[in-house]
Design a protein that fits this description.
By secondary structure, the protein is of the alpha/beta class. The protein has one domain (7-172): Aldolase class I (TIM Barrel), CATH 3.20.20.70. Helix content is 44%, strand content 12%. It has helices spanning 7-17, 34-43, 66-77, 82-93, 107-113, 115-125, 144-149, 164-172; strands spanning 24-28, 51-55, 101-105, 129-132, 153-154. The protein has a 5-stranded parallel sheet. Helix 7 (144-149) links the parallel strand 4 (129-132) and strand 5. Helix 2 packs parallel to helix 4 (82-93) and helix 4 runs parallel beside helix 6. It is globular, with a radius of gyration of 16 Å. 33% of the residues are buried.
């Protein structure tokens, strides 16, 4: 694997060594427009964000609440695309090369973009990890394993009702942290 000690791991080690808790923020790319969301994302580290999750807008965000659904709609209406979301990360990296960036969203836009192309471009612009809420561990061959082989952390979400057997499956190929 192509890990040099990723930004996510470095950030958690720094927080642990200084006995601090971390703040993970979420912003929808392109909401309300490209420049405003880029400006917000650029300001987050100075405002205390330790990791930044950037939502990849999608037309059918079934696992999200009304607020995020509305932000995705505003973003898409302003012309945001997956390619422009990667551009936001690239523009952010011109100012900040240390704050971990995680893309969060759904598999359909990634599939449409092209999985290999998405992984390659994500690495090129400085994405550190992925949260893909509708891709279960039973489908790890689709994106999780290829992403991990290319040095991208694949972060899973679990609920308080996730049983031990399911949790073991969720953790098997995941990395970065558990949400």
């Amino acid at each position: 694997m192509n890990y040099k000690l990723g930004r996510i791991k470095k950030r958690f080690e720094l927080l642990k060594s200084s006995k601090e808790k971390g703040l993970i923020t979420f912003v929808t790319a392109g909401d309300p427009d490209y420049n405003t969301s880029l400006s917000i994302i650029k300001s987050l580290p100075d405002a205390g964000a330790d990791l930044i999750e950037i939502g990849m807008p999608f037309t059918d965000p079934m696992a999200d609440g009304v607020g995020i659904q509305a932000s995705y709609l505003r973003s898409l209406n302003s012309g945001q695309t997956l390619s422009k979301t990667l551009d936001i990360v690239n523009d952010f990296r011109k100012k900040d090369d240390t704050t971990p960036v995680i893309l969060m969203g759904y598999f359909n836009p990634i599939y449409k973009y092209g999985i290999n192309n998405f992984i390659r471009e994500s690495k090129r612009v400085g994405v550190d990890g992925l949260i893909v809420v509708d891709l279960p561990p039973e489908a790890d061959e689709e994106l999780c394993k290829p992403a991990r082989r290319n040095g991208l952390d694949f972060i899973r979400l679990a609920t308080p009702t996730t049983d031990k057997k399911r949790l073991s499956l969720l953790l098997k190929n995941s990395s970065g942290f558990l949400g």
